[in-house]
From TrEMBL:
The keyword Transport does not apply. This is Alpha/beta fold hydrolase. InterPro entries: AB_hydrolase, AB_hydrolase_1, AB_hydrolase_fold. Signal peptide: none annotated. Keywords: Hydrolase. Pfam families: Abhydrolase_1 (PF00561). It comes from the Bacteria. Residues 25-230 form the AB hydrolase-1 domain. GO terms for molecular function: hydrolase activity. Gene3D superfamilies: alpha/beta hydrolase.
Amino acid sequence: MTAPTTGNLRVNGASLHYEVRGEGPPLLLIPGGTGGASSFDDVADTLAADYTVVTYDPRGMSRSPLDDPEAEQRVAEHADDALRILDLLSPGERARVLGVSSGAIVSLHLLTAHPGRIERVVAHEPPVVEVLPDAADHRALIARVRETFHAQGTMPAMAVFAAGLKREGDTDEPKAEITLPPQAVARAERTMANLPYFVGRIVPSFMSYAPDLDRLRALSDRLVLAGGQDSRGELPYRPAAYLAERFGTELVHFPGGHIGLTTHPAEFAELLRKAFRG
């Protein structure tokens, strides 16, 4: 694994840890869930042969502390953070962007708010549930997660959240075990430390976000909506499928499920290259 160049960028209310690898056109990778820059280590090394790959810990995660740990989180502010990183590391250049999960929500806002800075966005399973016909059901899920978090704590809230993400008809029967690379296992401690912030701040705010659909449609020639081959029907998959159908564009399937970039990094990186080539 190539050691990246690291730095810190001061933004409104936070300090962002970022990492840079390779040379070439700028490629910004926006993590989701409880992940940070390190969640992209396996794909970033591969992509650095073709791009200047920039990864970072979103505000409040891992090595990007908030000035006010209790501050409310907003998608627009996280997208502004991404823009600030691009302005620092690739001023004036249009960037390619991959966003995964909650990071994919950020990438959608970044595209609609600052299209002049974006060459192409791949949004992998953005859980923008407000676009779905059954959005009211998912608002109720978010409310249950929030109430459980405040009443019982992180792990019970995560259990409620995870149950709400399953595809219709799924049972609690054990599924085939996923074998993670050693690097992913080593990241588990940091991931666990980020859980309270994720379930308490990111989930309620980000999953209540409603994208500008007219703006996205107008920019759909620069937007690749993506889902995991193994996550068809699960909640994070459904908005990407719905938007692709609504915009008349292809839904691109990446290997694995919602965390395919972790379980299938080489295949994920190769398909990502193709997506950016159009």
